[in-house]
Amino acid sequence: MNLLEIKNLHAAIGDTKILHGIDLTINRGEVHAIMGPNGSGKSTLSYVLSGRDGYEVTEGEILLDGESVLEMEADERARAGMFLAFQYPVELPGVTGMSFLRAAVNARRREAGEDEVDQLEFVKLVRAAAADLGVDNEMLKRAVNVGFSGGEKKRYEILQMALLKPSLAVLDETDSGLDVDALKIVSDGVNAQRGDDCGMLVITHYQRLLSHIVPDFVHILAGGRIIKSGDKSLALEVEENGYAGLVNAA
Amino acid sequence: MVATTETIAAVEDATGAYKYGFVTDIETEKAPKGLNEDIIAFISAKKNEPEWMLEWRLKAYRHWLKMDSPDWAKLNIPEIDYQDVYYYAAPKSAEGPKSLDEVDPELLATYEKLGIPLNEQKMLAGVAVDAVFDSVSVATTFREELAKSGVIFCPISEAIREYPELIKKYMGSVVPVADNYFSALNSAVFTDGSFVYIPKGVRCPMELSTYFRINEKNTGQFERTLIIAEDNSYVSYLEGCTAPQRDENQLHAAVVELVAMEDAEIKYSTVQNWYPGDETGKGGIYNFVTKRGICRGDRAKISWTQVETGSAITWKYPSCILKGRDSVGEFYSVAVTNGAQQADTGTKMIHLGEGSRSTIISKGISAGKSQNTYRGLVEVHKPAEGARNFTQCDSLLVGDKCGAHTVPYIVSRNPSGKIEHEATTSRISEDQLFYCLQRGMDEEESVSLIVNGFCKEVMKELPMEFAVEAQKLIGISLEGSVG
Description:
The complex is a heterodimer of chains A (about 250) and B (about 475).
Chain A lengths: L3 E10 L2 E11 L4 E5 L6 H9 L4 E10 L2 E2 L5 H6 L2 E4 L6 E5 H15 L7 H14 L4 H5 L1 E2 L5 H15 L3 E5 L7 H13 L6 E6 L12 E6 L2 E6 L1 H10 L2 H6 L1
Parallel strand pairs in A: 3-10, 3-11, 6-9, 9-10
Antiparallel strand pairs in A: 1-2, 1-4, 4-5, 7-8, 11-12
Chain B lengths: L2 H12 L13 E3 L6 H10 L4 H15 L23 E3 L13 H9 L13 E7 L2 E5 L2 H5 L4 E4 H7 L1 H7 L10 H9 L4 E5 L8 E7 L10 E6 L4 E9 L6 E4 L2 E6 L4 E8 L11 E12 L5 E8 L4 E4 L2 E4 L5 E10 L4 E10 L5 E10 L4 E10 L7 E10 L5 E10 L5 E10 L2 H9 L4 H12 L1 H4 L4 H14 L6
């Protein structure tokens, strides 16, 4: 069964239609990249998929593991295996990184009818995963994203992903705000999670992320439609010629 | 901290209702309804009080008759018929139990149900409890243990008989009888509460705690607490309160006095969870409380921490008179209002001593149609050379039908005084909520997580044993505030 099937998806924010009929299928083990110019609907797609309030599906269907998610709330979709790495991770004053991770992991475990995590085991688990991403213990004691640098925010997003083990990970402009070194650490973290259990949708403006997280498929989004699909060479083509040629050709 | 998992568990088992709303069916002895000198004499006689105490009460009553209910708070208080209230209600079986074995099993079961087991083996290690049920103290645990170090922890009615010199010296010394309308009323009709005395140089070996329960219908609870910490002593005290779910409003007017001598420290924490009434504002406790402490000696310290989630109306300003040199006053407050609740709460820091310092951290959370006001006074008097105050008032709004208000009064009569006031008002942002939801937490858990984060500075001041309970409470009080 396909992991994610998007069929003829139309979506709007209020009266403004943003997506005009998107079709996309992602299987487990695949990494798809969505590229597109500003205002093409990339972030909207990520919010529509994850069920954010205010983003209305006016036509079409989204199936996760064959089940429609349209009637599911954002938290239900998350527990069903959908994960969104935010372009701008949100500050939660007073909520420590560690306690936030525990709450998120426990929410999934309860859904699965499992016991909540053992505190000590969990701390060990988190520390091991955090070390791989260069996230130190001190950072986990601080409030979520408060005073984090751009790189720290993105590393914390990927750490959450590593612990939550989603079946579908949507990475929204994960490269934004990262310098070269941070980009490498974050990309390595994402690559470590590639595998047969997980499908990924990598949303990006630039090709540079895709030389670190090499996609199996590349789609160009413009004007709320996928105007071209191909393999990783399509990303290089965009890098070379810009979006304008592709958009005009479509 | 274990905020989230605990909160969720609480939210789940509370199923949207006030958890402590049950009524204990127990035979009660009541004074007739109404307030007059005979009723006061009845209460005094019931408590076997000496003559001077009755005189003190009557004096207070006569003052009260001439006073008016305060109307300056941002509260809409319906007219209260003081003649339609029972001023004394006591479980019949409660007349003078000497040991836990003699306490009515029905009462023990009630406290067990409230999560306050009075059986010493079952209790939280290191916490002594005085259980006040309507107008009487029904049990005080660990008294012998405490007596070994010279600490007195007993019902105030007993202290009046056993330690009259201490009572005469200190009762009314911090909150004078005629201080305000409710303190005068309390002074006339108070029935029970706790008395704590920590001798010189003693660090109280355990947390002391009083658990107030209003059970009887149409009954007011008028408790009186007095804590005295002699030179160089330390005590941490916590009070908790609940009441059955009833359609009528009930009155709770308490007076708490703290006296800290040289180098003494009193830490006073409150987790207030009186029945708040339903969403339409029907029922609930009117909580009119006067709490004040005095740092009499140099370097004395008084710290108030309150988590206020209950009551239909809260009128409460735990305060510090900083008389000693370099004395310290602290006020940490979380006030959560939801539904139709109204809270007007804050503190007064009265700086008299040279170098006295105070800190005020107030976190107000308003949800539903509630109104939540911080009202605080910082006053630096002439002798308070170099006094310092720092105040931070943060308000968080949940939804768009509630109100948050901050009313700081600042008076400085000494130019060397340094007073800082910071205030913020914010909403739970849609971004924050979505971020939590996207990680799989449901809406109520998400709000509870964000709100507990917002209150963290205050919550960390609570004794460990109670921090978890307080976090749960905040989650429960905000139920139904979103969506």
